[in-house]
Inverse folding.
C-alpha cells in the first residue's frame, strides 16, 4: 500500500474512464482510466474522506471484474 494511505476515488469522476482492455497475461474488458481523477488518501485508516489529503493524477486505476472462486 502507498505510504500516504489507501486510495479512495473522489465522487463524480464518471468521465475519467472508457471501455478498454485490462491485463497483459489474461487480457479482459474493463473500464480503463483515460483522464486525471481526484483521489483521497486514507492515511489515518478511518474510512472517512473528510480531511484526507487529495491528489490528482493518472494513477492507472482500472475497474474490472473480480473472480468467481469458491
Amino acid at each position: 500500500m502507498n505510504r500516504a494511505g489507501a486510495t479512495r476515488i473522489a465522487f463524480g469522476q464518471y468521465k475519467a474512464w472508457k471501455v478498454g482492455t485490462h491485463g497483459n497475461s489474461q487480457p479482459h474488458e474493463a473500464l480503463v482510466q483515460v483522464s486525471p481523477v481526484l483521489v483521497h488518501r486514507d492515511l489515518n485508516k478511518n474510512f472517512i474522506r473528510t480531511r484526507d489529503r487529495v491528489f490528482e493524477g493518472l494513477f492507472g486505476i482500472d475497474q474490472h471484474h473480480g473472480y468467481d472462486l469458491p
In short: The chain has one domain: 6-57. The beta strands are 6-9, 17-22, 28-33, 37-42, 53-57.
